[in-house]
Design brief:
Length: 322
């Protein structure tokens, strides 16, 4: 069944995109890009560079002192993970980064997984934080947005409890292991073990924990600013607070493991959420630009991914021959 997941996700993405583009004026989409503000377009797309740099710096801060990981290696790992995120569901390329860290000799296998689990947890909590912040200040609340606000605040609370309380995390994972099928339960067991090690490792240094957490919140603020800059490039009038509330919801929709790299679900969410601020053609254009946020680093990571995969294959071959 696993071998069919990728073709199915691509098919779902194509289907959603076909539905979207059958309902919009394609010539209008061309006009949106033709009339865009080139200065803001360059600035918004160029933010990929500092975002990659800050993410790489955070990875260095996560590594234990004396690990020997430099800025160049951290950038390569982040870019290679970006490439894998384009083809793996729910940004699982970041998890694959743990194996590259281990195979390069920077950390042991279990600690490298713990590090990446903590990194992804910080990312998700930071995204939910800005989403909750924007939704609370969002001026046009209806039943849908009150429900989303409650759900996001609950998600932030759950994440903080899992991160800060070993007892709560043990209880939470224990319940999940009991109510899920055996195969999934084993995955939760592995995650629980990595989570426990992560808590033991990162709570030893509260200053470092605060630095990494603050950096994650700042990184995701830059992501939100980038998406708002996209609206400026498309000459759409969207208040920043509104964009801060709506863009995280679209990103969360793209994280659902239904489509290829979130393409389709993210686009549909952007069109629906921003319907009060611009037309469907502009929403489709914003969806394409948001895909470019992932596509540009993925292209940059291709050479490094090949190197890491080639090294991994050679190590496995040497182990087999030995």
């Amino acid at each position: 069944m696993k071998r069919y997941k990728r073709p199915i996700s691509i098919a779902v993405s194509v289907l959603i995109l076909c539905i979207i583009y059958s309902k919009i004026d394609f010539q209008g989409l061309i006009e949106v890009f033709r009339n865009c503000d080139l200065k803001w377009m360059v600035i918004s797309l160029g933010m990929v560079i500092p975002l990659t740099g800050f993410t790489s710096w955070r990875l260095q801060q996560l590594m234990p002192s004396g690990s020997g990981m430099g800025a160049g290696e951290a950038n390569k790992l982040v870019l290679a993970a970006s490439t894998l995120n384009m083809v793996l569901p729910s940004k699982m390329g970041d998890i694959a980064k743990a194996y590259f860290i281990r195979d390069r000799g920077y950390l042991t296998g279990t600690l490298s997984v713990s590090l990446v689990v903590f990194e992804k947890t910080c990312d998700m909590l930071s995204l939910l934080f800005w989403c909750a912040f924007g939704l609370i200040l969002y001026p046009q609340k209806d039943a849908f947005f009150w429900t989303m606000t409650a759900g996001v605040v609950a998600g932030v609370t759950l994440g903080l409890l899992l991160l800060g309380s070993a007892k709560f995390a043990h209880l939470f994972f224990g319940i999940l292991r009991k109510i899920t099928p055996k195969g999934i339960s084993q995955k939760f067991k592995s995650l629980q073990e990595s989570w426990q090690e992560m808590q033991q490792h990162f709570w030893q240094d509260r200053v470092q924990l605060a630095k990494v957490s603050g950096t994650s919140i700042f990184i995701w603020f830059l992501h939100m600013v980038q998406i708002w800059f996209f609206t400026l490039a498309l000459k759409a009038t969207v208040p920043f607070i509104v964009s801060l509330a709506l863009s995280p919801l679209a990103i969360l929709a793209g994280l659902l493991p239904l489509t290829f790299a979130g393409v389709g679900t993210r686009d549909a969410a952007l069109i629906a959420l921003y319907a009060n601020y611009f037309d469907e053609a502009t929403g489709a254009a914003l969806g394409l630009l948001c895909t470019m946020r992932y596509f540009l680093p993925a292209i940059g990571g291709l050479p490094f991914l090949r190197t890491y995969l080639a090294t991994l294959k050679s190590q496995k071959k040497a182990a087999t021959d030995g």
